[in-house]
From TrEMBL:
The chain crosses the membrane at residues 12-37, 57-82, 94-115, 135-153, 221-243, 249-267. SUPFAM superfamilies: ABC transporter involved in vitamin B12 uptake, BtuC. It is found in: Cell membrane; Membrane. CDD domains: TM_ABC_iron-siderophores_like (cd06550). Pfam families: ABC-3 (PF00950). It comes from Vandammella animalimorsus. Belongs to the ABC-3 integral membrane protein family. The keyword NAD does not apply. This is Metal ABC transporter permease. Keywords: Membrane, Transmembrane, Transmembrane helix, Transport. GO terms for cellular component: ATP-binding cassette (ABC) transporter complex. It is a multi-pass membrane protein.
């Protein structure tokens, strides 16, 4: 039994996949806490789809697709910030405009040269087929992003909680937001290789949403989200070997299962806890402490 359980660790491609997905899961989970805090989950969705034209263009030009994806994601993030600052449009309208523009452009490029673009890799990812060079690149992106998050998380927490107070203490919201979007775009590029463009949003939203059900303290929310993101990504990559299924899909299904468990059983915000509050205290509880 033990040799069977250890079998995935005997293959280099599985070790690479588990290493990469664990780091990506941790970084995306860290970012997801801020997206939940600010209500920006749709921005994560927009960026994850906005990288499609960059990937398609990189394939056509023979360039590293991560370079094209990051350029496209950064351009989309800049467009969202510019439209939000220079127009009276609301955030959801800006996100919808940028999302549809970039995703439509990507699909148009793919339709023109379908034989030259690997649509399945873009849409679903293929972490088991990444080379060692891709692994090093993803590890660099993940480590740099994680380092910046650890150094700046308190600034972003203050900014996203109360932008006016952040300005009063000397923080500059514009550059901080652009830096956050750049990290989000870079993480989306890395995550796309693991789960594909269609499922990146799950890694960016689900761990944070689960953690918010389990705690009201932001520091603890981050710790829970990172643990869930990294652990579920590692477990999903490992389980995909035995299930013979798409690694990204297994990871997302596992994260969704954890969210559903928290949704039902969370001690304060779960369905059972809410039901108990509606039912009132158990019989005899009101008499406790009475003579």
């Amino acid at each position: 039994m033990l040799p069977l359980l250890l079998e995935p660790f005997g293959y280099a491609y599985m070790r690479n996949a588990m290493l990469v997905t664990t780091l990506i899961g941790a970084v995306c989970a860290f970012l997801s806490c801020f997206l939940m805090l600010k209500g920006w989950s749709l921005i994560g969705d927009a960026l994850s789809h906005a990288i499609v034209p960059g990937v398609a263009g990189a394939y056509l030009l023979g360039l590293p697709f991560s370079l094209g994806a990051f350029f496209s994601g950064a351009l989309a993030a800049g467009a969202m910030v510019l439209l939000r600052q220079r127009t009276a449009l609301k955030e959801d309208v800006v996100i919808g405009l940028v999302f549809t523009l970039f995703f439509g452009l990507g699909l148009f490029m793919i339709s023109l040269w379908p034989s030259r673009v690997d649509l399945q890799s873009i849409a679903l990812g293929n972490v088991l087929a990444i080379t060692w060079g891709d692994t090093v690149q993803i590890l660099l992106i993940g480590c740099v992003t994680l380092l910046v998050l650890l150094l700046k998380w308190k600034d972003w927490m203050l900014l996203f909680f109360d932008e006016g107070h952040a300005r009063s203490v000397g923080l500059r919201p514009g550059p901080l937001k652009l830096l956050f979007f750049a990290l989000l775009a870079a993480s989306s590029v890395a995550a796309m290789q693991a789960v594909g463009a269609l499922l990146v949003i799950a890694l960016i939203v689900t761990p944070g949403a689960t953690a918010y059900l389990l705690s009201d303290r932001f520091g603890r929310v981050i710790a829970i989200a990172v643990a869930l993101g990294a652990g579920s990504s590692l477990a999903g990559a490992y389980a995909s070997y035995f299930l013979d299924g798409a690694t990204g899909a297994v990871i997302v299904l596992l994260q969704t299962a954890l969210f559903l468990l928290a949704f039902v059983f969370a001690p304060k915000h779960g369905l059972l806890a809410a039901h108990q509050r509606r039912q009132g205290p158990p019989p005899g509880a009101l008499q406790e402490g009475q003579p």
